[in-house]
Amino acid sequence: MEVGVRPIHGGPCSPFIDIAVYPQAREVKPIVIPGHGSFELENVVLDLNGTITESGEFIPGVVEGFEALSRAGFRIFVLSGDTKGTLAQTFKDFPYIQAVLTEKAQDKRTFVESIGPERTVCVGNGNIDVEMFKVARLSLCTIQGEGSSKKAMLEADIVVTHIKHAMEILLDPQKLIATLRS
Questions:
Q1: Residue 89: which region, alpha, beta or left (left: phi > 0; alpha: psi -120 to 50)?
Q2: Residues 134 and 108: beta-carbon distance below 8 Å
Q3: 98 within a domain of the structure (yes/no)
Q4: β-pair type (53-54, 57-58)
Q5: CA 114 to CA 23: how far, in whole Å?
Q6: pLDDT category, 25, cuts 50, 70, 90?
Q7: CA 128, CA 151: separation in Å to the nearest integer?
Q8: Domains contained in the chain, number
Q9: Which of 102, 125, 126, 128 is the most exposed place for a label (fewest CB within 10 A)?
């Protein structure tokens, strides 16, 4: 698998991601949530700034969370506009994470639609994440040091106070069921 940044618009890449370059997810076991139907999640799409990093540094617990999600068989994607030009360098030591260059909210939505929104959970904190929240099967908003936008909180299925909690919910279906059941 190619490691590095794959833009979804511009450059030599096509507007849509060639999903064949990504590893296949584990066999997905349905999670049945009363009042919400069945969830079969295999993709985790995360925003970078304010969600898994603050001031350019990983938030404590994020690396361990990546490792646990990877061991559980999730495909992990990190989306960023790469304002600082460090996206590829940041993820060079994480071969199980695909970093994807996205400059606008619509780019994030297009990416999620290209990998199968019905099997995707998105995690973010800002207005730029709202469009991907709208199409994903599950969306989680994090409120941490950089805060969260009102629009992101209102569009999310679940709001948490730390990225570690979002990852724990994904790793423990009982927590997901307890939070969303109706």
A1: alpha
A2: no
A3: yes
A4: antiparallel
A5: 15
A6: low
A7: 10
A8: 1
A9: 126
SS3 69: helix
In the beta sheet, which residues pair with residue 57?
54
Give percent of the chain with pLDDT exceeding 90.
76
Whole-number Å distance between alpha carbons of 180 and 182: 6
Which regions of 1-129 does DSSP assign to beta strands (E)?
5-7, 31-33, 37-39, 43-47, 53-54, 57-58, 75-80, 97-101, 120-124
What's the domain range around 39?
Answer: 5-13+31-177
User: What type of residue is 32?
Assistant: V
Q: In the structure encoding, which two tokens stand for residue 72, read together?
A: 């559980």
The CATH code of the domain that includes 111 is: 3.40.50.1000
Q: Is residue 18 part of a domain?
A: no
- Contact between 155 and 138 (Cβ < 8 Å): no
* Of 122, 126, 113, 47, residue with least CA distance to 80: 47
**Res. 164: pLDDT tops 50:** yes
Is 21 a domain residue?
no
C-alpha 166/C-alpha 152 separation (Å) is: 15
Are the C-beta atoms of 59 and 52 separated by less than 8 Å?
Answer: yes
For residue 10, count other CB atoms closer than 10 A to its CB.
9
pTM of the shown model: 0.87
Does residue 182 sit within a domain? no
